[in-house]
Amino acid sequence: MKLDRPKSVGELYAYIPPTPRNAHQLSRVPPLSKENRDYGYSVGRGSFHLDRAVGRWMSVAFRVKLNDVGEENGEITLYIDGSLVISIDGLSLRTSE
Asked: What is the pTM of this model?
């Protein structure tokens, strides 16, 4: 990812099933996480800063582990330039095979 705007805070924006458990798990991610019932979840806003990408490339990697159907054991992790910045477990990301 390469950006041309300074002083930007990063976040994970998740479009996942709006279950009570998902809302609880996502809302616990610091420094700021908010639910938007119409659009999804803003997760970990400010946990990384995009101004480091101004004028250079930045490595962004997601790891998504789907939950077992009927279980709340899914995971999402986000790495920026090889450093773990967001890690969430206990999620329901799917309801069928």
From this structure: 0.86
